[in-house]
Amino acid sequence: RGFRAATAEAPRQKGSMRSVLFLAAAAACTVAYHPVFFMHGIGGDSDDFYYLYRWINETHPGTPMYPISMFQGAPMSWLPLHYQVEKISAHIRAVVAAGAPGEFDNGYHLLCHSQGGLICRALVEEMDDHNVHTIISMAGPQLGVYGNSFFDFEKIPLFENLTCKDIWHVAYTPEAQLTLSVANMWNDPKHNETYYQQNVFLPHINGLDSDAARLKANFLRLQKAVFVVGEFEGAEGGYDGGIQPWQSGVFGFFDSSGGTYDVTHHAVWRNDSFGLRTLNETGRLVLGSYPGVRHDAWILDKKTFMTYTLPYLV
In this predicted structure, which of 7-16, 31-40, 131-140, 163-172 has the lowest mean pLDDT? Predict the structure, then answer.
């Protein structure tokens, strides 16, 4: 990944020492980019990384890249999120263990889209031995999902005969929580008490239970956390074409009256429950919402990726 001068013997020709010093200086200036793991979203697969792989290679040549070919498509990407986090963590450990000498010594990046953004945040918190340098969540539903547009977009068999306002009756049952990622992400603002009591995933990774200290310590080992999403003011229900509300990508959400709030009004910020506010206070947090960037643009549109994502992959 970097330039290496092949020198074993003392220089024998006049001027060769100057050449050796030049090569040593070039080697010192060579940038060795952190390896990148990519995690796709719900219904997606490792091929979603196709364009990103090309764009990264154009500007950061030699970057080791590892698309995660797990939980691909439907119904595999619908499996419960705690199970996906567990298996993906094991996969990353195996890749790191098998890496070239020194390849992962300085850490690695997680580049994650949609549901994958939520999975990657949970992985950072749950993985006591992670060496993640930077997590980048592109349109990841960090506070979950809710709304008719998302419900119509994701056709989940268990919910097919329900209306949006009735999903909570099923989503918060033990059966759904143990079998469906969408149930883990469902955050009905009109039934907050039931959500906090029976959703086994989101309240946990948001640091709202007894394991909060461990999760926070793991999250705070990050050098940087980047959460980006498209902004759609005035759009019906705050829908970016994949998650609803779009504000969830930067830790905002619907309130019980149908309005929205930003991150500063949630316990994850007020109580710094898993370290988000601490990252901000130490200059390691990026929360960015960008007008008109639709859900799939993060993986399909070069300008979007080069402008809002690539600068953090160093």
Answer: 7-16
Q: What is the pLDDT of residues 25-75, one digit of tens each?
A: 333 344 689 999 999 999 999 999 999 999 999 999 999 999 999 999 999
The pTM (predicted TM-score) of the whole model is 0.89
Cβ neighbors of 110 (< 8 A, separation 6 or more) are: 36, 37, 39, 120, 123, 124, 132, 134, 135, 136
Asked if 240 is an active-site residue, the reply is: yes
Active-site residue identified among 34, 48, 77, 114: 114
- Buried/exposed 154-164: b ≥16 CB within 10 Å, e otherwise: bebebbeeeeb
- CA 223, CA 94: separation in Å to the nearest integer? 22
295 is catalytic: yes
Give CA angle at 271 (265, 277), nearest 5°. 80
Selected catalytic residue, list 40, 113, 133, 295: 295
Between CA 233 and CA 238 the distance in angstroms is 7
Contacts of 290 (CB under 8 A, 6+ apart): 228, 229, 230, 231, 304, 308
Tokens representing 282? 């130490």
